[in-house]
Structures are given as structure tokens and as C-alpha cells.
Amino acid sequence: MDCSASDEVRVDCAIVGAGVVGLACAKRLAERGLQVALFEREHSFGQGISSRSSEVIHAGLYYPQGSLKAALCVAGARDLYAYCAAHGVAHRRTGKLVVATRADDLAALERIAAQARGNGVERARLITGEAAREMEPALNCCAALWSPDTGIIDSHALMQAYADDAEAAGAMLVFAAPVLHGECAARGVTLHVGGAAPYRVRADWLINAAGLGAQPLAAAITGFPAAHIAALHFAKGHYFSLSGRSPFSHLIYPVPEPGGLGIHLTLDLAGCARFGPDVAWIEQPDYTVPVERADAFARAIRQYWPGLPDGRLVPAYAGVRPKLGGAEAAAADFRIDGPASHGVAGVINLFGIESPGLTASLAIAARVSDIVTG
């Protein structure tokens, strides 16, 4: 397919958004023999949510039993570890400790442990504070949940591998190609793509994997019912890096807070530590990292690492999560809305795909593929 050769392109599946989930969908659908085109407004893949995360492979501890997040995280983690091993994507099964730093946190920790068991995370177990300190001597806690199957990953390398697989299977990845609007038809969708040489795309299926732009895209499709477009709230998370060497070799998480998992310590594959994200509810996406937030970060970190030296936190980056509920709402599940949900043929909207979206990417793609192929 050559978009420059015509003002109209015909495909089986048009995917919008070249983040980790959009790329996984392109790979899965192309490998099943469908004609796939993926459209991304930026000049490369992974420029949105996917490039601004903690790069953690989650085990599935936190999510309500029976939820899409729980099922797709657990299945996705298994599939992702196998994929990385088979494709040479850099990753490490570091394990993580979710820590109770006060007696008041113990009940919450026990609830997480029970949730993990209910989700099928078989190897997670509660340990004493003494056992946790044997693993991490710099740690302050009175108990911990040990999750040996949590890990870290090079997310850019993962997206490159997905992109390579998608193209090898015949998918077309089109960059600098913003989807401006579209129309529902009796069978499928027509999309209007901007850029240097605008054109139309007729597709049997639209997979809306546009991340923060998923709701605006759905609203720009004439004939799609507004009542089936999820609410969108922006939760900003800041990250700070640790200058100098970290004393930790595992990931360290506090018990969760409303809107997120708390300011936790993660490691990159070089062993460098970073902290975050916090939660700041904002009106529009903004990626600045105010240096004055370092003081609040330091106070939170010293709950589990009292030895954090002064002046070691350096502003790193910020991400914005697409929340389906606001600050006072309970955490929402992923939404993978196909025709059975909204009644419109040929449209699948992926709403609220935040953490653990990276971990669940292959499982989300499999779910999308099942809808498309029936």
C-alpha cells in the first residue's frame, strides 16, 4: 500500500496510535493475515504515554478480581516475558517489595496480598520486615509483599520489536499522519488523514488506540454515539532520578494512594534509580517537572528509605495518564469497546489504557484480534 499514490486507501484494519498497544495490535492483526495500516501523528512511535512510564512489567497484584486489568495484566506479563526472551528485548525479572512502613499500612498490605492470590499471582507472598531488610538493608518497613515476578523492560526496544514484527507481517506504519475526523458507514469507517498529502482511508475496522487522544478521536467520528465515549481526566505523574548509586536491587513500592501506586522506586536496566510517579490532576496535558516538587518526593521516599541523602533528586520527566474517573472516583477498568458495547459496526475504542497497559499489551492485542476475527 502506498498512501502517496492515491487520495484513498482501502484496508481491513486502520489503527490509530503507535504506542505500545497500537503497535501490539498492528503486529497481532497483520500476523493473522489482515491488511493493516497504523496511523501516528508524530514522526516516530511511542511519543506519548508509552515513552513516559516506569517501564515496569507488573505481576497483577492490585487490580480487582474479574477486571480486564487483572486478567490482561497476568496473561500479558506471562506472554511479555516469553516474547522478550524470544526476541532479545532487554528486560530483567527484578522482583519488587510492596512495603508497609507503619502498622496502619498492614491491613492494606494484606488486602493486596489477597487480591494478588485471587488474580492468580501465585508466587507473591507476605514477608516480615526483617526478611525484607535482609533483601534490602537500607529499607525501612514493618512488613512487605514480595512479588518475584515483577520486572523491568526497555520499552523503546519492545516497541521497536513490535513495529518490526508488524511490518514483517505486512502492516504499513504511517507517521506524521494525524487522523483528523471520520464517518461511520454501514460496514466500517472512513477516516480523513492529514499531513503533507491528505487522503482518505476506508477500513472495515477502526482500532482507536490513540491514548490521550482516544476520546477526541471517537468524538470526531460522525455517526458514533456520544453516549458511548468515556469521560476523560488527566492525572499527571512526575518522576525524579537519583543522582549517584542506588543501594537497592529490587523495586520498592509503598502501599497505593488514590489515583496511583504511590511514589515508588524503580530501576532501569543500567541499575539507575528513579522515583515516581506522584498524582496531580490537571486540565490539559503538561510535561514540566517543577524542581520544587523534590521536597515532597523526598518526604515520601524517606518513609521507606530514611537514608536518602539531601540534594540527590534530579527532575527527570513527567507522564499523563488517561483516567476515566476524577480524583474522587474509584479506579476504573480498561475499556475495550467493540460493537457489542456500542452497536457501531467496525469500531473498537480503547479507553483508559494506562498502567498496566505496557505489561498487558500483547493480551490487549489478542482481545482486539478476537473481536475483529469473530
In summary, what is this structure?
With 374 residues, the protein is α/β, with parallel strands linked by helices.
Account of the 3D structure:
Keywords: FAD, Flavoprotein, Oxidoreductase. Residues 12-370 form the FAD dependent oxidoreductase domain. The chain has 374 residues and is an alpha/beta fold. It has two domains: 3-51 and 156-231 and 333-373, FAD/NAD(P)-binding domain, CATH 3.50.50; 96-148 and 233-323, 2-Layer Sandwich (D-Amino Acid Oxidase, Chain A, domain 2), CATH 3.30.9.10. The protein is 26% helix and 28% strand. It is built from nine helices and 21 strands. The strands form four sheets. Strands 1, 2, 9, 10, 11, 12, 13, 20 and 21 form a nine-stranded mixed beta sheet that branches. A hairpin with a 5-residue loop joins strand 16 and strand 17. Helix 1 runs parallel beside helix 5, helix 1 packs across helix 9 (361-373) and helix 2 (68-87) packs across helix 9 (361-373). The longest helix is centred in the first third of the chain and has 20 residues, at 68-87. The chain is elongated. The relative contact order is 0.20. The model has no long low-confidence stretch (mean pLDDT 96).
Percentage of residues in strands: 25-35%
- DSSP E strands, number: 21
Overall spatial form: elongated
The value of Rg in angstroms is 21 Å
Give me the CATH architecture of the largest domain, please. Answer: 3-Layer(bba) Sandwich
CATH topology (level 3) name of the largest domain: FAD/NAD(P)-binding domain
The ordered H/E elements are EHEEHEEHEHEEHEEEEHEEEEEEHEEHEH
Distance between the termini: 25 Å
Proportion in helices: 25-40%
- What is the fourth-level CATH superfamily of the largest domain? FAD/NAD(P)-binding domain
What do the pLDDT scores average to?
Answer: 96
Please tell me the total number of domains.
2
